[in-house]
Specification:
mainly alpha, two-stranded antiparallel sheet, 9 helices, 3% strand
């Protein structure tokens, strides 16, 4: 009731505000702006997680692995995406820690402003992307953006670096997937040749080759090799 009386007696209609009293310097931030910022972060976060981290390479390789084994629904998409997500958190942990320590904590303590916090927090993420980006892809997008006078890759704008990083990640993921696909392809060819030589043309080769591919994958400890290779490829 007291709030309604204040709105009635006010000469101007003001936006509802929240008073932050946890810091010696009190600040009032409009609730409407806070809600807008929260929804903006929520809408952008999935794109940042998928396109600016190791998620792309991992999920593409795991999807190709499932296809090369001849499986359509196993492991389910939820398992592949969940495994890719947690592997991404594991690989990106050093970058996240740097952003948290160098940008987030100083900003919450009012030691730096939001602009400096943004630039400081972006540096580790840019460093990660630059390390994984091929120079050929980077030069392509710099050329298409018609940017001149770039002395080093560090001078490339972020909006140019992101598509170059995505292109490089897709290229690397396809290269790794091709190497994974080869041994299973050989098994399919051998089984198909044996079935043709025996005159069993009506029997689907995948039905016979699937147990052999699963046996090979288990014997060589396939998950250990694939996941280990994926994580090491980012080092």
């Amino acid at each position: 009731m007291a709030i309604l009386k204040n709105f009635k007696n006010a000469n101007l209609i003001a936006l509802p505000a929240i008073t932050m009293t946890g810091h010696p310097h009190h600040s009032e931030v409009s609730m409407l702006i806070q809600i807008l910022l929260i929804f903006t972060v929520i809408s952008i976060a999935p794109s940042i997680l998928i396109m600016m981290t190791s998620f792309i390479r991992i999920v593409v390789v795991l999807s190709f692995l499932r296809t090369s084994l001849g499986l359509t629904t196993e492991p389910p998409n939820q398992v592949i995406i969940g495994l890719s997500l947690f592997l991404t958190f594991f690989i990106m942990a050093p970058v996240i820690n740097k952003i948290y320590k160098n940008a987030y904590i100083p900003y919450t303590k009012k030691a730096i402003g939001i602009n400096r916090a943004y630039k400081t927090g972006l540096k580790p993420l840019r460093g990660f992307m630059l390390k994984q980006t091929r120079m050929k892809d980077l030069e392509l997008f710099v050329k298409m953006a018609k940017i001149k006078h770039i002395n080093s890759p560090k001078d490339v704008p972020t909006y140019v670096l992101i598509p170059a990083f995505i292109t490089s990640e897709l290229t690397t993921a396809f290269e790794i997937s091709f190497l994974i696909y080869l041994p299973f392809l050989i098994i399919d060819l051998v089984v198909s040749s044996l079935l043709m030589s025996m005159g069993m043309l009506m029997l689907p080769p995948t039905m016979i080759s699937l147990p052999f591919k699963l046996m090979l994958f288990v014997l060589v400890n396939g998950w250990y090799l694939v996941i280990g290779s994926l994580v090491q490829s980012f080092r």
